[in-house]
Amino acid sequence: MDRRSLLLLTATCLLLVLWYPLMYRIYPPRPVITPTQPGSTTPALDGHLAPSGDLVAPSTLQPASPLRPGYADTGFRRSIGPVTEIVLENDEARYVFTSDGGGLKEVELKHFEDAIVCRERNRNVPVGSARMNRWASTPMFALLGVDPPGTQPAYDLIRSNDVVVARRDLGGDLRVIKEFRLGTNHVLNVTTRLQNWSAQTRDVPTQEWVFGTAGPLHPDENVMYLGLFENDGESNEHIGESWFANRTLGCFPGTPRSEYLGQRTNTVWAAVHNQFFATVVLPADRSARVFARHVDLPVTNGVPTRAPLPGYQAALLYRGEQLPPGQERVREFALYVGPKDYRTLSSLGNNADVVMGFDNYFGGRFSGFFARALLLAMNGLHALGLSYAFAIIGITVLVRLLFWPLMAASARTSKRMAALQPQIKELQEKYKDNPQKMNQKMLELWREHKINPASGCLPILIQFPILLGFYAMLQTAIELRGATFLWACDLSQPDTIAILPGLRFPINPLPLLMGATMLWQARITPMSPSMDATQQKILKYMPLMFMVFLYNFSAGLTLYWTVSNLLSILQMKLTRARDGKSPTLPTLPTAPQRPPGRRPNP
């Protein structure tokens, strides 16, 4: 290794070690927030009676008014009087309804942990059941925008078997009734009624039906995965954390956005989500628009002074209308609150499986297609009794077997090209002043020996979509959350086994193994004779770049790549052992060498 290569290797390792301290210094944690003192007020936006027939983003016209401490700027006001709660539950979930807003306060998913925490001997220690909407101040199916300024009365809650009814008078003989009925597969059936009990036509303002808040389940969850979807039956729109953050060039802090108003006026379904869980609403009345606002969530882990994390409260906006006397406006919804399970989301219809987010990564629908296929294959192998880790290994082996003939042909081509290197160097020296002639002679040489120089790139190009599909699938598939492999206690996260004190640098063995196997593979792979010295060095040390880029990716992805590298090395060795020594290739005739200092004969 020359001095320049050694310096490059040293600089790469230093960047890897110092990356975390540098980022911690450039982007420090949010400042700690002092708890609100009793009697203080928090400025927030209040309800506004929009003109009949006008569809507006509710908060754009709402005057500021003080709210009780602890309630964020969400447009939701705490109810007067005592708050009551009613619980519905089945084998899948526990639904908690509150009279404060007359909606669904939270959903506890019984079969999923709140967080996966690694402990000694790589055991998963559940912190508690996953609780959706836990940190939000606004319950699901709270109705905003129909109350005059002031604190709203509490709802009356009534339970009958598997049905909960919330009821409240809005004033002026207007009444709202909400009916929640238990379904299956994490679905609640919701019916809302706006009734006019007066003897005259009433103006009903724009209604904001909150259907959920995208937020982390625990303080250490990555907020980069928060977002919302909207679908009009033909296309989807995804608004994520980066849209609200409004970063310059996607990296540098910008002016954050606080609200989002969708342009689709025929919403088929909408959703809010974090990395592994989602809330999806499917309205029967599709004349709504999606509206979302940024909120601060007091996500804590028993520490009351911890800084809040971002959340995105989403709602369906229905246009204001006139309601004749004795009439009611009835709307029905299906509400899914549960994991990002592909089969379950697909059963909702209307392409609701888009919530998985497979199409949001590089490659779009192309990589999303491979992500879905790989997920189905992984679940199929798991159904046969394999763990998810060995299912990933099994898929890797199947992919390598599928492309084995192509990879073997590529290895033979590389070997034959390496054998032609003396002739190629002679051509390069002979025609160094005539590049066009040199390329022509090289093509003739390759054609004579039946060598396609592009064949070495073909296996990589074919496998690239599979790699993209694996990356997209491993980001949000609930199946890998908490799946273990050797020292890795969660394949959906980096396999960190320790943190270097003082540097905040995680020790992740799988990316290091991946980098080592890539260096090994690059060392035994013949270089193309057409490459110059600089290109060969770049290709030789490119594994170090990949190791840096993928160091904090999910352990499932680095496991796939490591196994794939080992299989490639095995294939190269088997191909070489089977082919034996390459045949001697003819050399080009060269001019006879003359003694130095002697002139040629005329």
Topology summary:
Elements lengths: L2 H24 L15 E4 L18 E4 L17 E5 L3 E6 L4 E11 L2 E3 L5 E3 L2 E4 L10 E2 L11 E5 L2 E9 L2 E9 L4 E10 L5 E3 L2 E8 L12 E5 L4 E5 H5 L13 E3 L7 E5 L3 E7 L5 E9 L11 E10 L2 E3 L4 E12 L2 H6 L17 H19 L4 H15 L1 H16 L1 H10 L4 H14 L9 H19 L21 E3 L4 E3 L1 H16 L8 H17 L5 H25 L23
Antiparallel strand pairs: 1-2, 3-4, 4-5, 5-8, 6-7, 9-15, 10-11, 11-12, 12-13, 13-24, 14-23, 15-22, 16-17, 16-19, 18-21, 19-20, 20-24, 21-22, 25-26
Helix pairs in contact: 1-11, 4-5, 4-9, 5-12, 6-12, 7-8, 9-12, 10-11, 10-12
How would you characterize the overall build of this protein?
The chain has 602 residues and is α+β, with helices and mostly antiparallel strands. The chain has 2 domains: 44-61 and 84-355, Beta-galactosidase, Chain A, domain 5; 386-579, no CATH class. The chain has 12 helices and 26 strands. The protein has helices at residues 3-26, 241-245, 342-347, 365-383, 388-402, 404-419, 421-430, 435-448, 458-476, 509-524, 533-549, 555-579; strands at residues 42-45, 64-67, 85-89, 93-98, 103-113, 116-118, 124-126, 129-132, 143-144, 156-160, 163-171, 174-182, 187-196, 202-204, 207-214, 227-231, 236-240, 259-261, 269-273, 277-283, 289-297, 309-318, 321-323, 328-339, 498-500, 505-507. It has a 9-stranded antiparallel sheet with strand order 10-11-12-13-24-20-19-16-17. Strand 25 (498-500) and strand 26 form a beta hairpin. Helix 1 runs parallel beside helix 11 (533-549) and helix 6 (404-419) packs across helix 12.
